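subagent[fold] <- orchestrator: predict structure for attached chain, return tokens only, no commentary.
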Amino acid sequence: MGSLPYEIQTTDLETNKMESILKVCITGAAGQIAYSLIPMLCSGELFGADQMIALTLLDLPSQEDVCRGIAMEVEDGAYPLVKSIEFGSNAREMFRDVDFAIFLGGSPRKPGMERRDLLQVNGQIFEEQGKALNEVAKSSAKVLVVANPVNTNCLILSSNAPNIPRHNFTCLTRLDLNRARAQIARKAGVSVGEVKNIVLWGNHSMTQYPDVNHGTIKGVPINEVIKDEKYLREEFIYKVQKRGGEVLSHRKISSIMSAAQAIKDHVKSWVGGTKEGEFVSMGVYSEGWYNIPKDIFYSFPVLCRKGTYEVVEGLSLDLSLIHI
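subagent[fold] -> orchestrator:
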């Protein structure tokens, strides 16, 4: 384990009490998504402009020197909200007393690797990390899984950390939701901020279903603004499903910047709450809503408030477009 040689003591001048410190761990911390995410995290974009953080960076032993360099950059950034930063390859040390963990680390699919092989490798990683999390993290810890396949990895992780409630685990489908909103905004010629309440059902995969039937543009139903049913039911859905591959074909690397932005959006919604009259989509542990099987992680529309979420019920859903 490594750490930088500073520890900032902070006091709330009005109450003369030590400010609360949120311990946050990022796994796969030497990777490119982490490198894009960490400045947002340290600037208060995820947990708020007044929330102090103690940051821990976890990666493989071979990546510790990279993490050291990142920790040095965080120090050089002089972020007022960063109380301390540690890095290392021992999961139990990095997870100890953690409040929020973001799991970016996982084995990528390599040339010639079958999907079942990838699932087996990542299954072992998330099983071990789940056990470590269970032993040393706070029972109130919240977890976001980003490493693919997110739904499966999240289920394995949570299954091996029974001391933490299942509803404290979520997985990222916000990137797909953001892609869907951006495509609709582009088609309608409006800003993305004017597109609300699209639903991303399912998994971060080709089986996902971006659903515009409850969405609005400037308060008007999307299908009344974009009067092209074939586009909404075919081209739009295919475009969102294939967007990651499209980025990969041009950059020769998976989405980085947009993934970090989606993580920020996910955490900000979960912790800070959704806006009045709006919902977002998150991969959460299914209790059987919308006839989706129980005991899997699946993307549903949710309302968030102060670190909790509830699934929006009662929406109409075309089950013919749903794949489990």
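orchestrator: received. Logging for downstream: The first strand starts at residue 2 and ends at 3. The chain has a mean pLDDT of 91.
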